[in-house]
Structures are given as structure tokens and as C-alpha cells.
Amino acid sequence: MGVSVKICGLTEAEGLAAAIEAGARYVGFVFFEKSPRHVTPEAAAALAVQVPMGVAKVGLFVDPDDAALDRVLAHVPLDLIQLHGSESPDRVAGIRSRTGLPVMKAIGVSGPQDLDRIWDYGLVSDMLLIDAKAPEDAVLPGGNGLAFDWRLLVGRQMLKPWLLAGGLTPENVTEAIRLTRAQGVDVSSGVESAPGVKDPDRIRRFIARATAPIL
Ligand SMILES: O=C(O)c1ccccc1NCC(=O)[C@H](O)[C@H](O)COP(=O)(O)O
């Protein structure tokens, strides 16, 4: 099976259409108000009708309480919940059982000290997203266009299906996959022309390169 691609932080129909037509397997909507990619539940619902079967609609949350999840789920038929805050393993398991939806936990990596958490969260999540750890003073816990040292993942066993994220672009995604053997990749700022503005051409180039056979 080829590499799966998630395009994250979609806010308007043109970028979403480009992602779907180019073969994205996952499309992400950000429900975090401080993000330039934030969408309301109503806006996400309008975009979601454009998404065909076979493409998973992912809702990205940062330390959501139950009411925040309920508010979004009342409007948007999500297929997968992405947790991008400091949710504990217990909270991940709780959200999974309360919503009945599969959960992908994002794990920030900046060095070898972060790698044990990949195992811990693999026990309670359906999928993992291995991302660059945000700097201490960052406003956003993800979507910062920063990469980490991909060599940290070489030969690493994962308990669950996983996506690589953090600073990926059409220019570097082939090398990232070749090195890490990632099953999937996730991108946001690397396919934008400005924060929060997706560039359909960069989306198409990213997906074409990520899904091309690696020699
Ligand atoms: O994208 C955001 O604005 C965002 C806000 C809060 C938490 C996470 C966020 N994005 C997470 C993603 O899924 C990104 O695709 C991932 O971190 C990679 O981002 P980038 O380095 O910009 O490609």
C-alpha cells in the first residue's frame, strides 16, 4: 500500500477540492481558535459535504473539553479526531470511548527524550501523528512549519498506523519518506502561500511526490 497523505488546516473549497482530486486520504479541519486555519463548526460542515467516501474528515482539537467536542460533532460528521494538545493517555482513551470515533494522538518530538511517549500513546490511540515539538513560546502547538531530526525514527517500531508531520514540503517529502519509511505524511504550512491560505498547486505537487514510488 502507498503512502497516505493528510492535508491539514483546510479552510475553503478550492484547497479542499485540490486535496481530494490529487488523492489525499485525510483532510483536516482545525478547531482551535488561535490558529489562522481555524474553522467554525458551521464552516466545516459546509466543507464536509464536498468530501467523498474514502477520504477521512479529521477534526483537530487542542485539549478539548467534552462540550467543545459535542459542539463540533453536532455539526460535522467527522471520521477521525486528532488531539494536538497535552491530553493524557487516559483522556485520549476517554475521548475515544465517549465519542465512539477513532483518535489520532499527535506527539511532538524534538529529541530522543520524546520517543518513549510514542509507545505510551500507541497503547490508547488508533493512530499516531509524529510531529515536530513546538517551541516553548509558540502560539500554536502544531502547524509551525518546523521539522525535527527524522533520523530519530529510523528503524523504530510503532504500535499503530502513523503519519509523519512537521515542516514537510513538496521539496523535502520524498527524502522524509525515504528515511523514515513513514506510512503517511501530514502537511499544513508547507502547502500554503501565507499562514492559513492553502495553495492548490503546492497541494498537488506535495501529493504527487508523496505518493510516487520511492526508488
Ligand atoms: O495547523 C494549525 O494551525 C494547528 C494549530 C494547533 C494545533 C495543531 C495545528 N496543526 C497541526 C497539524 O496537523 C499540522 O499539519 C502539523 O503540525 C504539521 O504542520 P506543518 O509543519 O505546518 O506542516
Describe the fold and architecture.
The chain has a single domain (4-211), classed as Aldolase class I (TIM Barrel). The chain is globular, with a radius of gyration of 16 Å. The protein is 31% helix and 21% strand. The longest helix is centred in the C-terminal third of the chain and has 12 residues, at 200-211. With 215 residues, it is α/β, with parallel strands linked by helices. The chain has an eight-stranded parallel barrel, surrounded by five helices. It has a two-stranded antiparallel sheet with strand order 9-10. The two termini are 15 Å apart. It has helices at residues 13-22, 41-48, 66-75, 89-99, 116-122, 173-180, 200-211; strands at 4-7, 26-30, 56-61, 80-83, 103-109, 127-132, 162-165, 184-187, 192-194, 197-198. The structure holds ligand LARABZUK.
Give the secondary structure arrangement, pairings included:
Layout: E1 4-7, H1 13-22, E2 26-30, H2 41-48, E3 56-61, H3 66-75, E4 80-83, H4 89-99, E5 103-109, H5 116-122, E6 127-132, E7 162-165, H6 173-180, E8 184-187, E9 192-194, E10 197-198, H7 200-211
Parallel strand pairs: 1-2, 1-8, 2-3, 3-4, 4-5, 5-6, 6-7, 7-8
Antiparallel strand pairs: 9-10
Helix pairs in contact: 1-7, 2-3
The structure holds the ligand O=C(O)c1ccccc1NCC(=O)[C@H](O)[C@H](O)COP(=O)(O)O.
Q: Give the distance, in angstroms, between the N- and C-terminal Cα atoms.
A: 15 Å
Q: Supply Rg.
A: 16 Å
Mean pLDDT: 96
Number of helices, counting only DSSP H or I runs of 4 residues or more:
7
Instruction: Identify the CATH class.
Output: Alpha Beta
CATH architectural category: Alpha-Beta Barrel
Question: What's the domain count?
Answer: 1
CATH superfamily: Aldolase class I
Can you give the helix content as a percent range? 25-40%
**Oligomeric nature of the chains:** single chain
Number of strand segments: 10
CATH topology-level name: TIM Barrel
Keywords: Amino-acid biosynthesis, Aromatic amino acid biosynthesis, Isomerase, Tryptophan biosynthesis
GO biological process, one term: L-tryptophan biosynthetic process
GO molecular function: phosphoribosylanthranilate isomerase activity
Catalytic activity: N-(5-phospho-beta-D-ribosyl)anthranilate = 1-(2-carboxyphenylamino)-1-deoxy-D-ribulose 5-phosphate
